[in-house]
């Protein structure tokens, strides 16, 4: 039943048309495919939907022999195999759901050279028995999908991915292509090192989604503003992400009461209900889906006009992935985040619960910190996002985010900055932002008294601005490099060369005028 024969050594264009029915490549595909065909190791970073599969499927057909694809998700493997077979490409998967007899048959046809593309799990890929099967087969290419799973810096670390290094050790002459949609620079380097890729060709596609508009809005009493927005977008389909299952149901109900067509979606709903709600949304029978992050995997609805977050996502990878479900059709779409500093507490709770390994915990805190920095940046949001993903964005302003729409006003904040730096120095560079601001605003906290910091000249010198405004200034100074935050779980503020230059009066500090909105508040700290 492994139908079809596919002639090896067809040209890439012939294969593209004959087996995939496309007449041209998507951006980046051809360069990647050329590098693979030239026998190089390749790291390919491409946004979701960018067409990664073709980058190894097409070379597999041109090479002939056997291509092994390592993939972490059995369900997705099966879909891929089915669609390849439907195109007349002999593909198969070996996984634990197969019976013994079925596995033996597949092994035999592999050795007979009748399978072109074989999907396996990472656990299977490193089994000695499987490796010796590959040694006897005509192995031409290894593709490692979702390669970010190899890195603790990725958003889905899987220790078993680390063992995939054995593939390069056992088959040094076989090129490896590693693919992922989410790679901050630290992840990219990790992939190359961990898989022992040899002088790999790196292709980093653009992550810029030009048609998406990014906004961050204060979360306090957000419901009426949400309703107002939805009234203006009556005919648009959209996703509203909530943190908890309960919140999705409550929000859907509240929106229904306001007359909107909304349904909840989360992993706790019975399978049939969940499937029904998803279908209704995709068909357009319901306009708004209130969902947990469980919603969206593998869903392709091109005309999602807005993605709204009522709670803070835990990192920018998640946020980018979730907002990426808007505007797949290329038409304008909104990404709105209701932001409150209080949500950081929930994230901290999750991180503490989820990770035991201190290194992983620290990474998770750093990422959560970047998520907050995104919310609080006074600069262009798009530039912030793209910079985070390691992509150079040459413009200072994108014109497609709230910060570019209404740029913040800047004033000469040198005096404010000097006060903050003096305070940090005065307390010995041993405390976080909220402690610093407590000292400045004359807090009566016992801790400050015990430390004797209520006797410093800067104590209570910060009248004229509110606590939130001071926090905002501190945050901005960190972002602009006038002071340094050690980051991690208990961030501490310390001075750097620029801080010292400010103290000497050598460096002016432009800061953002506190707005009438009362300024978006800062992160809570662990003290
Ligand atoms: P990714 O794995 O990067 O998310 P896929 O490989 O699933 O992306 O491809 C995304 C979509 O693009 C699929 O529907 C696929 O059929 C389509 N696609 C891939 N390559 C091409 C091409 N050269 N021309 C047109 N469509 C393509
Ligand atoms: Zn912008």
UniProtKB/TrEMBL annotation:
One of its GO terms (cellular component) is chromosome. GO terms for biological process: DNA replication; double-strand break repair via homologous recombination; SOS response. Coiled coil: none annotated. It catalyses: Couples ATP hydrolysis with the unwinding of duplex DNA by translocating in the 3'-5' direction. Residues 33-201 form the Helicase ATP-binding domain. Belongs to the helicase family. RecQ subfamily. This is DNA 3'-5' helicase. It comes from Methanoculleus thermophilus. The chain holds residues 13 to 539 of 624 of the full protein.
């Amino acid at each position: 039943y492994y139908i079809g024969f596919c002639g090896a050594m067809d040209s890439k264009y012939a294969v593209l048309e004959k087996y995939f029915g496309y007449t041209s490549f998507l951006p980046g595909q051809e360069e990647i495919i050329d590098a693979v065909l030239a026998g190089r190791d390749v790291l390919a970073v491409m946004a979701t939907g960018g067409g990664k599969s073709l980058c190894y499927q097409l070379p597999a057909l041109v090479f002939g022999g056997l291509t092994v694809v390592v993939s972490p998700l059995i369900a997705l493997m099966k879909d891929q195999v089915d669609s390849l077979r439907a195109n007349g490409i002999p593909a198969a998967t070996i996984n634990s759901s197969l019976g013994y007899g079925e596995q033996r048959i597949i092994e035999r046809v592999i050795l007979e050279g009748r399978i072109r593309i074989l999907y396996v799990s990472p656990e299977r890929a490193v089994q000695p028995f499987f490796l010796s099967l590959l040694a006897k087969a005509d192995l031409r290419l290894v593709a490692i999908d979702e390669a970010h799973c190899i890195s603790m810096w990725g958003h889905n670390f899987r220790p078993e991915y680390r063992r995939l290094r054995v593939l390069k050790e056992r088959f040094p002459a076989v090129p490896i292509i590693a693919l992922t949609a989410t790679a901050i620079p630290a992840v990219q380097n990790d992939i190359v090192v961990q898989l022992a890729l040899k002088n790999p060709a790196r292709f980093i596609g653009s992550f810029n989604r030009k048609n998406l508009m990014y906004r961050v809005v204060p979360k306090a009493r957000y419901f009426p503003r949400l309703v107002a927005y939805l009234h203006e977008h009556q005919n648009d389909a959209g996703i509203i992400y909530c943190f908890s299952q309960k919140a999705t149901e409550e929000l859907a109900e509240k929106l229904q009461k306001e007359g909107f067509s909304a349904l909840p979606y989360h992993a706790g709903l019975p399978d049939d209900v969940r499937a029904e709600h998803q279908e209704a949304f995709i068909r357009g029978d319901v306009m708004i889906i209130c969902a947990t992050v469980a919603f969206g995997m593998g869903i392709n609805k091109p005309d999602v006009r807005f993605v709204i977050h009522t709670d803070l996502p835990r990192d920018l990878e998640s946020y980018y992935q979730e907002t990426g479900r808007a505007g797949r059709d290329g038409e304008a779409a909104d990404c709105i985040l209701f932001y409150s500093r209080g949500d950081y507490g929930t994230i901290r709770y999750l991180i503490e619960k989820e990770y035991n390994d201190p290194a992983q915990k620290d990474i998770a805190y750093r990422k959560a910190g970047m998520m907050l920095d995104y919310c609080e940046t006074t600069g262009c949001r798009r530039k912030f996002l793209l910079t985070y993903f390691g992509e150079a964005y040459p413009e200072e302003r994108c014109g497609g985010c709230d910060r570019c729409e209404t740029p913040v006003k800047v004033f000469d904040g040198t005096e404010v900055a000097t006060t903050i730096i003096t305070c940090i120095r005065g307390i010995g560079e041993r405390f976080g932002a909220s402690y610093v601001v407590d000292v400045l605003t004359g807090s009566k906290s016992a801790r400050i008294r015990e430390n004797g910091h209520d006797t410093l000249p800067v104590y209570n010198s910060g009248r004229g601005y509110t606590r939130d405004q001071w926090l905002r200034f501190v945050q901005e100074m960190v972002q602009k490099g006038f002071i340094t935050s050690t980051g991690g779980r208990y961030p501490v503020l310390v001075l750097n060369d620029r801080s010292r230059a400010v103290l000497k009066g050598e460096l002016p500090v432009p800061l953002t005028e506190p707005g009438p909105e009362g300024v978006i508040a800062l992160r809570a700290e662990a003290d």
